[in-house]
Each structure stands twice: as C-alpha cells, then as structure tokens.
Amino acid sequence: MVKIGYLAVVGATGAVGKEVYALLEQRSLSVEKLILLASARSAGQTIKVNDHDLIVEELTDESFQGVDYAIFSAGGGVSKKFAPIAKAAGCVVIDNSSAFRMADDVPLVVPEINPGDLDGHQGIIANPNCSTIIMNMVVWPLHQQNPVKRIAVSTYQAASGAGEAAMRELTTQTADVLAGWPVEPKVLSHLIAFNLFSHDTPIGEDGYNQEERKMIEETRKIFHVPDLPITATCVRVPIPRAHSESINLTFANPMSAKEAREILSTAPGVRVIDDVVANHFPMPIEASGQDDCLVGRIRQDVSQPGGCGLELFVCGDQIRKGAALNAVQILECLITGGYISKYP
Fold first, then answer.
1. What is the mean pLDDT of the chain?
2. Do 16 and 104 have their domain in common?
3. Residue 63 contacts residue 57 (beta carbons within 8 Å)
4. What are φ and ψ of residue 227, in 5° steps?
5. Residue 250, SS3 per DSSP
6. 253 and 158 share a domain?
7. 160-216: per-residue pLDDT in tens?
C-alpha cells in the first residue's frame, strides 16, 4: 500500500475532484489526511470518502499549511492564484488546468510517457490537456519504435470536457428537444443535443482554436520534439463522457498495421479493440469509466507512399485518464520514485 501524508483536493465538488477521491479508494492509496477544498459556495457540503464523512472547506490562502500534496481541478484562474501560495507553504501541486503547462520550469507529465520529467520539479507539476493525453497514450509507444514525423488528429470531445454543468446540459437539452420544447444553450455556446460544433475556445490569428493549439504545443513538450509537425481539429459532440480521436501518423520508416497492433497490445494504459470480423472498434460508451485508452481501426494509410502512414481511432475517458487518473498517477510517481500503472 502506498502511503501519502496530507493531501488536498482543490475543486473537490467538481467532476474531476470527485473522480480523484474515488480513485484514492480504488488504487490502494493510504492518505493520512484528506482535505477537500472548494469555493465558498460549495463549502460545508458533506462528502463520504472511504466510509468517512468529510466536510468541504472553503479554499483560502491558509488552506495549505501543513499539506504535503495538492491536486488542483478548479480552473486556470484558481490555479494561478492559489498554486503559488500552496508551493510557498511547502506543498507540491499537481495542476489539472492549463495555467502552467507551457512554463519552462514546470514539467508536463504523462506517467506512462515521461515520468523522468518529474525529476527536479520546483513544486508545481502540470497535467496535460485531456485530448493531448488520450492521443499520446497510443502515439508514444509507436514513436518509441519508429519516430513519428507528423501527426494529424481530429477529436470528438464529450460534454464532460466542459465539466459537470455541461454534462447536465446535454441531458436536459436532449429531453427538451425530444419533447419539442425550445432550447437555449447556457453552459456551452451552441446546442449540443443532436448536434456537434467546432470546439468553442478562442481562435488565434493562425486559425487554430485554443484546444487545437494545446494539443500541438503540449505534445511537442511531452515528446521533447519542439518542431514536431502536428495539426488538429477539435470538435464537441453530444456524448456524455469519454473523448474520441481519429489519428493519422507519418513515420520515419515503414510500419505495418500488424506491427502497430503488436506494439500497442503491450503498451501500458492501452487496450486494443480491433475486431474487423465483428466490426467492433473503440467506442466512448465502452471507454467511459475505464483506466485504459481504447485503440482500434489500425490500418495502413493508403494515401501515403512506402508504408510510412497509419490510421488509428482511440477513445479515452476524459474525466479519468484525461484528468483525475493522470494526476493520481503523478502523485504515485512522486511517492514511490517511479511509475506504477496499477496496484493489486
């Protein structure tokens, strides 16, 4: 059993925060004291963790005194304000927001890929974007065997990526549309029920939106390949939970679909679902609630000469591996000094 001292969960009443303390129960992690932190609006709620009733406390400047580790899942603004305060109090911060991901002195870590980047951290560690994590769980093992020279990815991102309120909006909108009632989007920018739309983050001068830019820049940092050619198109779809991605890869050398399946079949945190006969491939409904990212539709890209191109389709739980699980795995690495994928 892995033993942890004092652990704070910031954003404890949100979807990712709830998943964090659920994972603590599931992964044989013994926490000396668990502190649940949230806004003043949520403070005072009672949450049961490991058969103990814990009171949610208001997040303040004094919340991190004596705390060893903190997992932040409350948005970039909260992280920018309170992560430096936690660090100054001697607390190691694992941050799920985008606030520090591209900072030179902050490691951006997926434990199955680059746990060594944790060495020499300066008190703040960043969790990558959920879509970045899900993509790279399958790209990295292949890249290790045959360098990837270009990535083109299109995402199909679930409502869960925008938080619990967006998941509820998908449910209520679907019921309203089926009932023939008028629908006015409140959480998301556009109708999500029976619809899909381009990820509604700000678009830069280059035409790429913020989500697409995250996938590009974060992958380059994680892979330590600052000029890796990557293009992305990110789309929101009416799925409650688990993102899907269509990935096109160009390799330095030829790679067959069979070789890729063999590599991915032993990759940590990856499960191959590629049954051509039954026409059964990764689906978000099957990835939801799962630790592993599911990969299939592994096939040669016939448009690329010389057998150097592959097509893949991957599904991964945005709340779990895309956020909470990755953060907990980072915590495990810090405690044990090495990457551990699962505990018996």
1. 95
2. yes
3. yes
4. -115, 20
5. strand
6. yes
7. 999 889 999 999 999 999 999 999 999 999 999 999 999 999 999 999 999 999 999
**In what helix (H) or strand (E) does residue 24 lie, and over which residues does it extend?**
helix 15-26
Q: Which residues are the active-site residues?
A: 130, 243
Ramachandran angles phi, psi of 159, nearest 5°: -60, -25
Residue 342: predicted pLDDT:
39
For 73, the domain range is 2-128+323-336
341 lies in some domain: no
What would you measure as the largest C-alpha separation in the chain, in angstroms? 62
CATH number at residue 77: 3.40.50.720
pLDDT at 93 over 50: yes
Q: Name the nearest CA neighbour of 215 among 95, 116, 326, 98.
A: 98
Q: Read off φ and ψ for residue 271, nearest 5 degrees.
A: -130, 125
**Does 31 lie in the same domain as 117?**
yes
Q: Which CATH number belongs to the domain containing residue 202 in this structure? A: 3.30.360.10
The pTM for the full model equals: 0.95
Same domain, residue pair 141 and 30: no
Distance CA 27, CA 43 (A): 27
Residue 293 counted as domain residue: yes
Total of domains in the chain: 2
pLDDT at 343: 31
What are residue 147's phi and psi, to 5 degrees? Answer: -55, 130
Query: Hey, what amino acid is at 127?
Result: N
pLDDT, residue 337, reads 78
